[in-house]
């Protein structure tokens, strides 16, 4: 990924999506109007900031990245592996859409800005360069264990006729293996659901905890179903290590803002 700065807004983009018919970003804390613990670019409604402040933050991001402000759609993420195909009836920032229990969204329509929110979980971006389908999925540890990455690709294949070899994937900034410390019960969830999980789990020497590489697991899950390694870009950016740049739940708890993953077909 590379860091971009436009009109004071700092955001990351994947090199793999350069020069394609899409716009996308992963936002940071930098460039908005929020104050206090959500300073400054919080993109989550109904946390601490008024709607007006969050709307202004989205406006700034859209202007900087070149995304369509009117086309934004945000699902109500619940750590599921439910994916929905979006149509225009669901767009609009204050649209009380029906996207409950939805952690992945997908479309082949131009002008719809798929948006999902983060503060340590893994953002996954998908683009089928032949069928012109985009998707985003929110892969926290529960979503990773439920293989939302694989569920997303399977839906692109089933509903849009995608060939897995045409799908580009960006795996965005999240809590890294350096910082994603879990107890044994979480470790066991990974082992029971992902047959290669142990290759991505590291035992802490000083206590009974474990460290898990969720970006790496998501990449390996995608390779196993036939995606090409050259079509996957992994951020290798840890949101906890870089909490000056990113909101991190593990650093700040619930009293914080959220970053957004956003993608739009042109
Ligand atoms: Zn870290």
Secondary-structure map with pairings?
Elements: E1 2-6, E2 9-13, E3 22-27, H1 51-65, E4 72-73, E5 83-85, E6 104-107, E7 113-118, E8 122-128, E9 133-139, H2 141-145, H3 148-160, E10 167-171, E11 181-182, H4 184-193, E12 201-203, E13 210-212, H5 214-224, E14 232-234, H6 249-252, E15 259-265
Parallel strand pairs: 4-7, 5-6, 10-14
Antiparallel strand pairs: 1-2, 2-3, 3-15, 6-9, 7-15, 8-9, 8-10, 11-13, 12-13
Zinc ion is lined by residues 176, 178-179, 238, 240-241.
Which regions have little confidence, pLDDT < 50, spanning 5+ residues? Answer: none
CATH architecture: 4-Layer Sandwich
Query: How do the strands line up in the largest sheet?
Result: 1-2-3-15-7-4
Strand content: 25-35%
Q: How many strand elements?
A: 15
The secondary-structure class comes to alpha+beta
Please write the CATH class name. Alpha Beta
Q: What sequence of helices (H) and strands (E) makes up the elements?
A: EEEHEEEEEEHHEEHEEHEHE
Radius of gyration: 17 Å
| Inertia-based shape | globular
By DSSP (H or I, 4+ residues per run), the number of helices equals 6
